[in-house]
């Protein structure tokens, strides 16, 4: 299969309108987004961050499947867990004095919790883990260090036999973990 054509797409264009593109399916590409956030093509980790960011901008999800799409091509790739990974965060205060959390992905997405992103708990490898919504039904996992730092700053709220680990952002409470009474 020939390499995917990225000529008309540049990082300066931001997010291309992949939701408006409906190209024919062209097959699969030997590309995997690993659970640790690495993008691997034909067995080799892609080391150029700008290339990974460019690919992330043309990523599309249909059901449980992921594709790289351009106006003329659609190739399926493998995603082990989530296609994006939060690698840092910032807490600030909005104009009303409420805390607002911004998450930054490895591929330069900025996700503002409670404004353009939400958190949900999903099961992965027999653990209930938090993921933040990105776009087009896709999610970002949290790098382990970021997750532990967030837990240290979160509030613990009792909910019956369960303790909820929560962040408050833009006036909304988001559960990033739970503890159960033994």
CATH level-two architecture of the largest domain: Roll
User: What is the β-strand count?
Assistant: 15
Q: With helices defined by DSSP (H or I, 4 residues minimum), what is the helix count?
A: 2
Q: Give the terminus-to-terminus CA distance.
A: 55 Å
Radius of gyration: 18 Å
Largest sheet: 6 strands, mixed
Proportion of beta-strand residues: over 45%
Please identify the oligomeric state.
single chain
| Biggest sheet: strand arrangement | 3-2-1-6-5-4
Question: What do we call the CATH topology of the largest domain?
Answer: duf1285 protein fold
* Structural classification: mainly beta
- Low-confidence blocks of residues: 7-12
The overall average pLDDT, rounded, is: 90
Written description of the protein model:
The protein is mostly beta strands. The chain has 2 domains: 11-79, duf1285 like fold, CATH 3.10.540.10; 84-180, Roll (duf1285 protein fold), CATH 2.30.270.10. It is 10% helix and 48% strand. The chain contains 2 helices and 15 strands. It has helices at 49-57, 144-153; strands at residues 25-33, 39-41, 44-45, 59-62, 65-69, 74-79, 84-93, 99-105, 110-112, 119-124, 127-133, 139-142, 155-159, 162-169, 172-180. The strands form 3 sheets. A 6-stranded mixed beta sheet has the order 3-2-1-6-5-4. The longest helix has 10 residues, at 144-153. The chain is globular and about 50 Å long. The termini are far apart. Mean pLDDT is 90; it is low at 7-12.
Task: Describe, in short, the structure shown.
The chain has 182 residues and is mainly beta. It is 10% helix and 48% strand. It has helices at 49-57, 144-153, and strands spanning 25-33, 39-41, 44-45, 59-62, 65-69, 74-79, 84-93, 99-105, 110-112, 119-124, 127-133, 139-142, 155-159, 162-169, 172-180.
């Amino acid at each position: 299969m020939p390499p995917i054509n990225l000529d008309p797409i540049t990082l300066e264009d931001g997010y291309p309108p992949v939701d408006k593109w409906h190209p024919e399916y062209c097959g699969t590409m030997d590309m995997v987004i690993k659970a640790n956030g690495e993008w691997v093509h034909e067995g080799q980790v892609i080391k150029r961050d700008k290339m990974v960011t460019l690919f992330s901008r043309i990523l599309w999800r249909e059901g449980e499947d992921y594709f790289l799409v351009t106006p003329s091509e659609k190739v399926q790739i493998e995603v082990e867990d989530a296609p994006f990974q939060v690698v840092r965060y910032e807490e600030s205060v909005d104009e009303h004095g409420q805390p607002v959390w911004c998450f930054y992905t490895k591929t330069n997405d900025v996700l503002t919790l409670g404004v353009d992103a939400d958190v949900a708990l999903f099961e992965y490898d027999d653990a209930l883990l938090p993921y933040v919504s990105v776009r087009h039904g896709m999610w970002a996992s949290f790098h382990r260090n970021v997750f532990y730092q967030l837990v240290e700053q979160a509030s613990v709220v009792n909910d019956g036999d369960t303790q909820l680990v929560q962040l408050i952002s833009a006036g909304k409470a988001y559960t990033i973990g739970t503890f159960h009474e033994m």
